[in-house]
Design goal:
Blueprint (H helix, E strand, L loop, with lengths): L2 H48 L8 H10 L19 H11 L12 H4 L44 H10 L8 H11 L1 H8 L21 H8 L3 H23 L2 E2 L3 H10 L3 H7 L2 H11 L18 E2 L15 H10 L17 H4 L12 E2 L21 H10 L11 H12 L5 E4 L5 E3 L1
Antiparallel strand pairs: 1-4, 2-3, 4-5
Helix pairs in contact: 2-10, 3-9, 5-9, 6-9, 10-11, 12-16, 15-16
Bound molecules: heme C (HEC) (2 copies).
């Protein structure tokens, strides 16, 4: 390469160099522009995320709130033990049965006597009253379709088999199964046969005496024992089907959204004004106690605010009575129940009944344990606990505050207790009932 060529080469590179320098500075400017845009966007997003919600809820708290929201409630889980559970005709038939007072020994008691739609499907009593007085308080039937276990002690494993209990309880409806299937024969033949096929003829009083059932009452059990096995089976089947229809109705009853739910929706939508409109600052502070210092979510979780498990809360026994053994007795009863998931009147395959296979009779924690129940509409359903031992929500909160269970103790200030009670009151809502068409309607 000659000097000239070299020079020209250098010139060229210089020229190119100039070019390069120009495009470099351009892309640097672009880069700075883009970077500031990114920074702006990030700042914007964080301001947006933090600002409207205020500093009060962290992301993980928002996740907790959302998990309690009624809007997150899925439809009830399938009940393979009940083939008609989602049939609208069963819903309508079940509704008739639920409110029919003729389904009681003295014609005065229906399911609604103790599960009154106007009282959130409870009765406001410590001990429910039918034809006699029961030994426990009536929980609501709303939302129970989500549980594997029914009653405070879980002595039933389906909503349909649960319904058969009160019908034959001497203090609730007071009748025997032969008495009820005869009423179906006389009053409900059409509805019954549409759903379940041909109804046997129960009119023969000799074959089907009114008071026959395998109950503690000696006359009833003797009358039952005197029947043929075939007749007993056909009575049992119709009796079980009554429960299946009632269950289809109860399954459709829902909690509407409470002010608490409106609040969570507002939090999720970053709508500060709607948050303020939904809960007062005191209720909002109570919500913080509920998910935090109160440790309530250990057991009251999910949109129905229950884990449906069994715990001994050391609730005081009823005066003059032995402690209620709760689950320790219920676990035996459900295993032996002829109407359980594995029984011949269940529509389930054995592999659908894993909850029964998994029962642990030696679990020391089942002694005196009761099932966690929903606390939605709790302000409407005093008194509280399985025998209505606690009269007010203040007493309930105080009970938890002095409860000395390792790992579960809490130590709330007076202010926090009042806030927690205020929050519990914000959980009230309308009850949504199924209407004739099987759709839902508000009450
Ligand atoms: C005399 C009042 C009374 C009548 C009548 C009555 N119940 Fe109940 N119900 C109760 C009581 C009390 C409990 C709790 C009993 C227990 O756990 O031992 C209960 C529990 C229940 C539960 C369980 C709820 C849960 O959380 O586990 C359901 C469901 C239910 N009843 C439905 C019915 C149906 C259906 C009928 C009509 C066939 C009916 N009840 C009739 C008082 C009554
Ligand atoms: C270890 C589990 C557990 C924890 C923690 C817990 N609960 Fe409960 N809750 C239950 C059980 C079980 C019952 C029913 C007990 C009974 O009747 O004997 C119940 C019952 C209730 C009832 C009465 C329901 C009714 O219909 O009678 C209210 C109200 C309640 N809890 C609120 C709370 C609050 C508020 C907290 C937090 C301070 C809390 N619970 C913490 C398990 C728990």
């Amino acid at each position: 390469m000659t000097e000239r060529e070299k020079a020209s080469q250098t010139e060229k590179s210089a020229e190119q160099g100039v070019d390069t320098t120009d495009s470099k500075s351009l892309s640097r400017r672009l880069l700075i522009g883009a970077a500031s845009l990114v920074v702006l966007v990030i700042v914007g997003i964080s301001v947006y995320a933090v600002w409207p919600r205020g500093p009060q809820w962290t992301d993980s708290e928002v996740t907790l709130l959302r998990s309690l929201w009624i809007g997150e409630l899925a439809p009830p889980p399938a009940d393979p033990s009940n083939a008609v559970v989602d049939d609208p005709r069963a819903v309508a038939f079940g509704e008739e049965l639920f409110f029919d007072e003729s389904l009681s020994v003295d014609g005065s008691v229906s399911c609604a006597t103790c599960h009154d739609p106007d009282q959130s499907f409870t009765d406001g009593l410590a001990f429910s009253e039918g034809v006699g007085v029961t030994g426990r308080s009536a929980p609501t039937v709303i939302g129970t379709a989500y549980s594997d276990w029914f009653f405070w002690d879980g002595r039933k494993d389906s909503m349909w088999s649960q319904a058969l209990g009160p019908l034959e309880s001497p203090v609730e409806h007071g009748g025997a199964r032969t008495f009820y299937v005869r009423i179906i024969d006389q009053e409900y033949r059409v509805q019954y046969e549409e759903l379940f096929g041909e109804l046997p003829d129960f009119s023969d009083q000799e074959r089907f005496p009114d008071n026959a059932a395998p109950l503690e009452d000696p006359a009833s059990s003797a009358a039952w024992a005197a029947m043929t096995e075939e007749d007993r089976d056909s009575v049992n089947r119709v009796f079980a089907n009554m429960g299946k229809a009632i269950s289809a109705y109860q399954r459709q009853i829902e909690f509407g959204p409470s002010r608490f739910d409106q609040y969570v929706e507002a939090v999720v939508n970053n709508d500060n004004a709607a948050m303020r409109a939904a809960l007062t600052p005191e209720e909002e502070a109570g919500l913080r106690v509920f998910i935090g210092d109160g440790k309530c979510m250990t057991c009251h979780l999910g949109p129905l605010m229950t884990d449906n498990r069994f715990y001994n809360l050391d609730v005081p026994s009823v005066e003059g009575q032995d402690p209620d053994r709760g689950r320790a007795v219920g676990i035996q009863q459900v295993a032996e129940d002829e109407f359980n998931c594995l029984g011949r009147y269940s529509d389930a395959a054995p592999e659908d009944c894993e909850h029964l296979e998994a029962l642990d009779f030696d679990d020391p924690d089942i002694e005196n344990a009761m099932r966690t129940v929903t606390i939605r509409n709790i302000a409407e359903t005093a008194p509280y606990m399985h025998a209505g031992q606690l009269q007010t929500l203040e007493e309930v909160v105080e009970h938890y505050n002095v409860w000395e269970e390792p790992g579960r103790e809490i130590d709330l200030t007076e202010e926090q207790k009042a806030q927690l009670v205020a929050f519990l009151r914000s959980l009230s809502s309308e009850v949504i009932l199924p209407d004739e068409s099987g759709e839902t309607a508000s009450r």
